Amino acid sequence: MPVRVESSAPTQISGADSWQSTPQACTLLSVGQAFSGTQNVSNNQKDEAWRVNVRIQGLDLDHGYLCGTMEALNVPMADTPVVTFWEGEIVDGKNYNFFTGKWQAAPEDDIRHWTKFPSFCPLMNQVEVDGGKSLDLSNYPCIFMRWKEQYFVNVGTDCGLTIAGFYYVCFSCSDGSISGFYYDPNSSPFQKLELKSTNEGRSGFSFSSYELQ
Amino acid sequence: MPTSASSAIPKPSSELVSRLTAADAAVKLKALRDIKNQIIGNRTKKLSFVKLGVVPHVAAILSSTSDPNILVQSAAVLGSFACGVDAGVSAVLDAGAFPRLLRLLADPDPKVVDAGARSLRMVYQSKLAPKYDFLQQENTKFLLSLLNSQNENVTGLGASIIVHSCDTIAEQKALYNGGVLEKLIDLLDGSLSQRDASLESIATIFKNNVEAIAKFMQPGREDCLSYIIELMKDRNPKTRLLACVCLIVIRNSSPCYLQDIGIKMKLIHSLLELLDNPGQVGDEASFVFSTLIAEKEELQKLAFEANAIDTLYNHLQKDQLSPRRFQGILLAFSHLCSKLESCRSRFLSLQVMNIVIDALQHESSDIRIAACTCLRSVSRSIKNLSAGYFMNETVVLPVVRLLHNPSNAVQVAALGAISNIVVDFSTKRSIFIECGGVKELVRLSKSMDLDIRLNALWALRNLMFLANNMYKSGIFMELTASLLASLVCDPEPSIQEHAMALVRNLIDGCEDSIEYAFAEDGIILNTICRQLQSISRDEIGVQGMHVLCNVASGNEFHKERLMKQLFPQGDDVIQSFVVKFLQSDNSQLRIAAVWVIINLSLPSSPRAPDRVTKLQNAGIVSQMKNMVNDPCLDVKLRVRTVLGQLMAFGDGIAL
Prior knowledge:
Chain A has helices at 107-114, 124-130, and strands at residues 34-40, 49-60, 65-72, 82-90, 142-152, 166-172, 178-183, 191-198. Chain A is mostly beta strands. Chain A has one domain (35-197). The longest helix of chain A has 8 residues, at 107-114. In chain A, 47% of the residues are buried. Chain B has a domain at 13-124: Leucine-rich Repeat Variant (Alpha Horseshoe), CATH 1.25.10. Chain B is elongated, with a radius of gyration of 33 Å. Chain B is mainly alpha-helical. Classes of the chains: A mainly beta, B mainly alpha. At the A-B interface, strand 2 of A face helix 25, helix 27, helix 30, helix 33 and helix 35 of B. Chain B: Keywords: Cytoplasm, Nucleus, Repeat. Chain B: It is found in: Cytoplasm; Nucleus.
């Protein structure tokens, strides 16, 4: 979701080799699944919260990759909902670890954000040693990710909004809820994203799928 | 009245025939030389003489004389007819010249032997040449005698026979057990042509044959491999290309060899440099490059780092590309862009797409197919699909037009690209629908050709993914419930799977969509439940159970209709496939089945208690309890969801 402060462009990182198995697929985090909730635009809880919808569009566990769109519904500066496309890195110890190594995020920034998630605490000691490379997260009930918005889908880059930062994200395999914290050195710290799995008015969960050739 | 040219068999002029059949050797010789001089390098003349029926007369001379000069000239003429023109090869073979040419190899005169070998090499350049049976021991001995010859054309002929005729593991085995491999290794030290012939033959014997390669790699033979590696730097471009071919075959067939990054980089750089060669070697280099990187992400990454995309693009921009070269470069692009987003991103930034889109309309079907393959690869980029990059008229119209192409292979290639392009997150599906794309896909989903039917259905399945109600309604009207039902029970398992996946997408989204499953007296749902009773592969069960899951996510009416499907005979007996899938070794199948139970037992549903009682009586609850520590985390968590929901029903449910 876009915020209102500018920042510099991210750099690239290559994946690290490791023996770990990738996280198991979680049906609540599969392509087509939708989530909705809010993002507090400031760490001050009294401030506005934007309504946010997220849709997963692509998932590639082998490469620790997922992507989708994020729609911010009541952005004060925008006439219409603002939709962005984001790409995610899944922290699997194989492709990515807990240390971001780019996007102006130092290990201390990483730890400061990851520790906001209660489910991260049991991993903390090992992460401080090696970024979590040696952790086996394949059966862990949470999936940690970084989501980085890549472009605006329905508005131009001159919309006065920025997508320079990225989100530290924790997905709960148990109930499909998502928590996240937006990080951008030039924005308000710890803007919190809270999303729940939605079923679009149905009395139950429905799943669709596509397969690329 | 004019008649078609083929309706009458033309006769050679009586003058030419009389000269070819003249008793006077000098006249005959002159006639042969005249023909040879006219047809060398002249395809039109060759075809014209073939049509005139000259070839049988020349072939006849081979068995009617022992004059070395006449034999040499006859063989040369026949070889020339066979060189590069399939109609000429056919004429030579039909005239019975092949065994006569073979006999020349035993002639005492070395010139006759040489002419016979040259001529036969020409024949063996064509796919029409007869297969040589290596499984007969005598034939292998004969082949060895050719390879042992001092004459380069004879050894070259031996190599050509191997390259043309050795296809199976058994044939490869017959050759290396018969000592052919050792001889070919010796020939690596021979002349330039022997070395090239040897490299090509060795590659043929090694292809997909781990045992043959292991023999080659025996201790003490390390020099051979090093020598071939050295040949990648040879002065002669063809030798460099063939050395690459040989090394790639070894790598691809036996992945334990040639794994160091240095060799990989050398292969990539050598092949990219060979593209500079203006002739056949440059044409083939991109095809060989494709065999190196196909399906290998690591090599694609190295090739990307070696600037392969830019290099190929530079060659693509040159004027007067041969069709073969154009095709090869497009295929190389498609392999490069098959897995890595970095490659696709670079490809798209160079505007290669304009060339690919033009190539969709090229007169050569090979190039049209290569363009579709390229488009298919690059459209695997979800980032660009999401941006609607491919869903525009410039791309969609020419590729949809190809669905009318008379060639099945072109249609299949176009459908492959369409399958990806229609995964549209940008709400621009109307472009595809308005140009008649859906009508074409539905038409082709009824094709008798399995590949066409499968790919058309695949595209429809992807088109239906997250489609809004208006599009769904339009697509469903074209498809009809009865066609969908018939695809669900198609004899081919892959069609069943995609048809069920299509239905799954059709009834996802807005709750009203579920009604499609009940159209025409529920023909689709009935057929799916019937098919699930006996599936030939798990993937069908996974898609089928997701259809049931999506139905079960609807309102009370939908849930109750599904319950009737699941309990066809009464209250206590559930369709056996439900329990079978819950107990499957396949976690995908288990999770899909568990989701059906979750949706049917949601505590907020008014009639959930009745359904839960039925599920309990049918043994589903006890099955769920058995799965509480399922090895798959997703299944385990969802089973706990079910058990948590059942708790809400209180004492009636024995947990």
